[in-house]
Amino acid sequence: MIFIKRIEAFGFKSFAEPTTLNFDFAMTGIVGPNGSGKSNITDAIMWALGEQSSKSLRGDSMEDIVFSGSSDRKPLNMAEVTLVFDNSTRAFSSLDYNEVSITRKFFKLTKESEYYINGSKVRLKDIQDIALETGLTKSSLAIISQGSISSFVESSPEQRRRLFDEAAGVARYKKRKEEAIRKLLRSQDNLDRINDIINEIERKLPSLKRQSKKASEYQTKFDELKQIEVAVLVKDIQLYKKRILEISEEKVEMKTQISSLEKAIQSRSEEFNNINKSSFENERELSKLNKEFTKIVDEIGQLKVSRISLESKKSKVDIDDKEFRISDLKNKAKELEIKLNSEEQKLGKLLADKVEKRNALEDFSKQRFELNKKLDLLRKENARIESTLENLYARKNSNDNLFEGVRNILENKKVLAGIIGTVQELINVDKQYENAIASVVQNSLQNVVARNSADVKAAIEFLKSNKAGYATFLPLDTLRANYIKSDMRFAIQKAKGFVGFANELIKIEKKYQVVLDYLLATYIVVDKYDDAIEVAKLTNYKFNIVTLDGERVLPHGAIVGGSRKQKNNLLNESMRISELEEKKNILDSNELDLQGQVNSLSDHIEQSREEIAEIQTAIGSAKAATEQIEKSQADIREEYRVLTGKELDGGEQEFQSLDEQIIKIIEQVTDCEARKEEIQQQMNVIRSLKDKSNERQNKLHSTIDEDRRMLSAMKDKYANLNADSMLMFEKQSSASERLAQNYNLTFESAISIEQTNVDNEEQTRDRINLLRQEIKSLGNINLDAIQEFKEENERYEHYVEQTNDVIESINNLKEAINDMDEQMVVQFKKIIKDVNGALPNTFATLFGGGTANIVYTNPDDILNSGIDIKISPPGKKISNLNLLSGGEKSMVALSVLFSILKVKPIPLVILDEVEAPLDIANVERFAKYIKTFINETQFMIVTHRIGTMENCDILFGATMQQKGITKLVQIKLIEAKKISNAS
Ligand code: ATP
C-alpha cells in the first residue's frame, strides 16, 4: 500500500533547495554514499510530525535543523517540510479527507514553529495526536534504525516492553494515565489546601459568629436609639434656639429699661444734690438775714427810745393842748409823707424787680426750649446708633455672614479639637490702614486657623461626612512664611511713600503671627498711587503693592483700583461696632450733660416763678400800705383844717429843730421798719423755698429709693436672663455635641433627615436611657464582625462546596485510571498473545527453522512486567541471548518486529540500514519477507545492500552534486549498485 505519497523539503538540514520525493510504490529503496543525506529524509518525516527533541534529530538545538550553508551557499533562515498522505483508508480517523498534508515551518529568528494540516494552521498537539493515532512516532515500529535493532536483544525486559506497549496502543493510555495522575495529584494538593483553609475558617467562625451576633444586636439597638434620640435632640435644640432668641429679645428690652432707669436715677440724684447745694446757700443767706433782722430790731428799739426822749423834751415847750395837737398833726402829716415816699419807692423797686424776674424767666424758658430741642435730636441719634449696634451684635453672634463650611466648623468648635478661629476674629486693623488691608486680606478673612494638620484632617472629615460645606484651613504647624529677602526689604523700606509690610501693620497675638507672615509678608503698603508704581518698578513687579486708599499693583504689573460700593463688611464690622460704641458713649455723656442743663434751667424757672409770686405778694401789701397812709394823711389834713381853719402847710419856727430830730428819727425808724419787713419777706421767701426744697428732696429721695429697688430687681432679672441664656446655650451645645459625637451629625444635617414623631416624650426619654444602658452592657463591639462573619461564612460554604467538587473529581480520575489500567492489561495481554501466535512462524522463516516465544518477566503485574524472549534457533540451545552473534541478534529482533507487524499492521515503516549486519543469504530472506507485508504497509528502506535493493519497487539515490546540498533522483538498480559499491 502507499500511505505517504510525497515529501517536500526546503531549508531542512542538507535540503538547501526545494526538494520533492514522490512515492508511487509500496517498497522504496533509498541509496547513496555516507553523508549524502539519506537519514535526513527520516528526520524530515519525524520533524514534520512534531518531534520536539533536537537530540532525536541529531542536533544540539532546533536551529541546527535549518540549512547552515555550504562553501557555495549562504545559510537559510527557515526550514519547511510537507508530508502528503493518502487517507482514503482513514488512517487519520479524525480527518475526513482522502489526502492529508502536514506542514511544519521553523523560523530561525523567532525560534518558533508553525504547523498546518491541509494548509490550515493548527496546534502542535493536533499534529502529535494524529501522529500517535497512526503509530508514526519515534518509539514505535514506524522508524527503525540499525541501532535500535541491535539494542533490542541487548536491552532490559522493561525497555523492550515499550515496543509492545506501542504496538498494543497502551502508550496512548499511558500518556493519558500520566496526565490523569498529574491531575489527581493536583486535585489532591488542591483538596489539602482547601482543607487547610476550611480548618482555619472553622477555628475562627464560632468567635466571629458570636461577635457578629453581638454587633447585630448593637446595630439594631443603636439604629433605634439614633432614630429616636436624634429626633429628641433636634426637638430639644429647636426649643433651646427658640428660647435663646426669646431671652435675647427680653434682654434687649430689659437693657433699654435698665439704661433709661439708670439715667433717671442719675438725673434725680443730681437734682437732689443741686437742691442740697442751694439749701446750703439758703441756710447761709437765712442766717445772714436773721442777724441783720436782729440788728435792725435793736436799732428800731434804740430809735424809739431816742424819739420818746425827744418828744418829752418837746412837750415841755408845748403851750396848750390845742397847740400840741396841731403840732402833733403836723408831725404826723410829715411822718406819713415820709412813709408814703418810702412805700412808693418800695413799690417802684418791687415792680422793677418783677419786670427783671419776668425777663429772666422768659430767658430761662427760651434756653430750656432750645436745650430740649437739642436733647431730642441727640436722643433720636442715640436710638438710631443703638438699633444699628443691636443689628451688628446680632449679625456677629449669628455667624450669618460666614461661608457654610466655616460657620459649621465654628459652631462645632467644641467637638473639633484645635480649631482656633477665623483670621477675621484674630486680627485688629488701625483705621488708617483699613482700606489698604481690606483690599488685600479680603479673601483670607474666613480662613480657619487651626493648631495642626491632624486637627485640620479631622475637621475636613467632619465637613465631608456631614456634607457641611468647605473651608480653607491654616494649620499653625505647617504654615511657612514667605518673606522678602532682607536686601530687597531694606531697599523697599527706603522707598518714597513706604508705609509698612502688611503682615507687620496688622495687630495679632504673637503666637498667631505666622498666619500673617504666611498670608501677607510679601504685601507692601505705600502712601499713594505714584509711590506704588515706583515701588513696583523697584521690586521688578514681583510683589503685591497696595496704597492706603486700597489701590493695588499686582505681581507682573496688573493694577486694581476704583471705588468699592460696599466696603469689606467682615473687616469693618468689628471696627464699626467699636466706633459706634464710642460714638454712643459720647452721645450718652452729652445727653446727661444736656439733661443736667435742662434740669438746672427748670430749677431756675421754678425759682423765678416763686420769686415773682413773692414779689407780687409784696407789691400787694405795699399798695395796701400806701392806700392806708394816704387815708391817714387825708384824716390828718381834715383834723388840721378843723382846728386851725387853715390848710396844713408847714411847721412853727421855734420847734423846728426838735421836730426835725424827731422827724429824722421817725424817718430812720420807718427805713429800719421797711428794711426789717424786707428782711422778713426775704426770710419768708427763703423759708418757703426751703420747705419746698425739703419737700422736693423727700419726694426725690423716695423716688430714687423706689427706682433703685426697681433697678436692682431689673438687674437681677437681667442676670437671671443671662444665666438662662447661658444654660440654654450650654444645653444646646451639649445636645449638638451629642449629635456630632454619637451620630456624626450637625444640627442642620440632622434636621434634614427624616424625623420620627415623638408622641410621648417621657416614654421616649425612658426608652433612650434603657437603650443606652443595654448598649453599654453589651461591652466591646466589633462592627466589622458582621461583614467579616458573612464573608467568612460564605467562604466556608464556598470551600465546602469546592471540597465536594474536588473529591468528586478525584474519584472520577481514580475511576478513569482504573479503567485505563484494565484496558491496558487487556490490550497488552492481547498483543503478547497475538505476537506469540505469529512469532514461531516468522522466526522459523527468517532463521530457516527453530522457534521462539515471548514471556512476561512478572506475570502477576502485567502493567509493569518486562518482556523476555525465549528462542531456539535450529540446532542450537541458547540460554543467554547475549551469546548470539551480531547478525543473529538482528535476526531475532527482526523476527519479533515482523511478528508485531503481522498482528498489528501500521501504514508506514522506515527501515534505516537494519539489515547491514546480515549475510547475503539472510539479506535475501529479509528482503523477501518484507515483501509479504506490502499490502498492509508501505516501506521506505535506506540501504547499502544489493539484496535489498534488488527487491525494492523503486530506488532513489541521494547525491551531493553540489557540495553540502542533497539532491534526490530516481535511479536504476545498476546505478544503485554502482553507488553502493562506491560507498
Ligand atoms: P550514512 O550513510 O553515513 O548514514 P547518510 O546518507 O544517512 O549517511 P545523513 O546523515 O542523512 O547521511 O546526512 C548527513 C549530512 O547532512 C551531512 O553531510 C551533514 O553535513 C548534512 N547536514 C546535516 N545538517 C545540516 C544542516 N543544518 N545544514 C547543512 N547540511 C546539514
TrEMBL record:
Main site of residence? cytoplasm
What the entry lists under InterPro entries is as follows: P-loop_NTPase, RecF/RecN/SMC_N, SMC, SMC_hinge, SMC_hinge_sf, SMC_prok
**One GO BP annotation of this record:** DNA replication
Q: Which GO terms describe its molecular function?
A: ATP binding; ATP hydrolysis activity; DNA binding
Q: Subcellular localization, per the record? A: Cytoplasm
Keyword annotations of the record: ATP-binding, Coiled coil, Cytoplasm, DNA-binding, Nucleotide-binding
What positions does the entry give for ATP binding? Answer: 33-40
Domain SMC hinge: where? 417-536
How is this protein annotated for GO cellular component? chromosome; cytoplasm
As recorded in UniProt, coiled-coil segments are 170-264, 319-395, 563-625, 662-724
Summarize the protein's role.
Required for chromosome condensation and partitioning.
Q: Domain annotation text?
A: Contains large globular domains required for ATP hydrolysis at each terminus and a third globular domain forming a flexible hinge near the middle of the molecule. These domains are separated by coiled-coil structures.
Q: How does it assemble?
A: Homodimer.
Q: What family does this belong to? A: Belongs to the SMC family.
Protein name (record): Chromosome partition protein Smc
